[in-house]
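thought: fold this chain, then report.
action: predict
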Amino acid sequence: MVDRDGPVRIVHVAGELDHDSADGLCGAPARPVEDGIERIVLDLGELGFCDSTGLNILLHARLDAQAVGLRLELAGPRPAVARLFAVTGADTVLRIHPDLGAAPAVPGRVPAVASDAPSASEPQSEPEQWPEPEQPSGEVSSARPGAPPGPV
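observation:
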């Protein structure tokens, strides 16, 4: 189901978001943007399961929204779905609110719960990149704990 609350399109997602059900969500966020829509909020309060296909759809929807000047935000993920976001690092690129009521109704107003999230005026940064691994110095030491250093 898709609702509108002022400048916000709210897409309610329920059940499972996986390979078999992905087609149902693909179209909702991507519907043509109506006049005055500034953000899309996906209400995940009734989403009980999400797999890698579903996660991929959400990440692509975020990019599609950005391409047309909108923000995609998520609200109310259940613990299993929130854990998927945390384990994969998706929570560092997706703006996630604890519930639909906490998603700011006015663009730029960030609730206290999400105070570490970027405001509407500042762009979201890409996730922090892992440092490049150090190159070996030529000698490889034993991986056994307590073993003396030296060539293997």
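thought: worth noting. The longest helix spans residues 52-67.
final: tokens above.
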